[in-house]
Design brief:
By secondary structure, this protein is of the alpha+beta class. A hairpin with a 2-residue loop joins strand 1 and strand 2. It starts with a helix and ends with a helix. Helices cover 43% and strands 13% of the residues. The strands form 2 sheets. A two-stranded antiparallel ribbon has the order 1-2. The longest helix has 18 residues.
């Protein structure tokens, strides 16, 4: 495992569920995740410069252009929403999850997996069984009408 993987585990916590093949994450991805935690904002990716942010988001507000990524207002999202949370997640704790669930307008499903932390949803050995199979079932149900 490289130093970036070690760095991420330091902040996310170790889990026996990890598949070591997937522990490589770029520093920019790591920075994006930790910036969201530090600021408390749920927002789009920051491309690292005002010009790149303008190129990707081109935000206009009262005749002024803003060079920061847009902040997502979860309470205004009307799409069907499915949430999975981990009981051992130190990045998104139970208070964060409760806040998100309360703000989610059209919550269809919420599943808490007690032994999961943040990385288990991406690199867990049993993520297909505990998460991805649910996703596939919901997609198939939606496609069938």
């Amino acid at each position: 495992m490289d130093s970036e993987g070690n760095y991420f585990i330091l902040y996310c916590g170790y889990s026996i569920n990890y598949s070591p093949t997937y522990l490589n994450m770029s520093l920019s991805e790591t920075y994006f995740i930790f910036k969201g935690i530090r600021t408390g904002f749920f927002q789009a990716y920051n491309w690292g410069s005002e010009s790149l942010n303008m190129q990707h988001y081109n935000q206009l507000f009262f005749l002024f252009f803003y060079s920061t990524p847009p902040i997502y207002k979860v309470e205004n999202m009307r799409v069907q929403t499915f949430i999975w949370s981990g009981g051992q997640d130190i990045l998104v704790n139970s208070i964060n999850v409760k806040t998100l669930v309360a703000k989610t307008y059209n919550l269809v499903y919420h599943k808490k997996i007690g032994d999961y932390n943040h990385l288990d949803f991406i690199i867990g050995k049993d993520v297909a069984e505990k998460v991805y199979n649910d996703w596939i079932a919901f997609i198939k149900k939606d496609e069938s009408g």
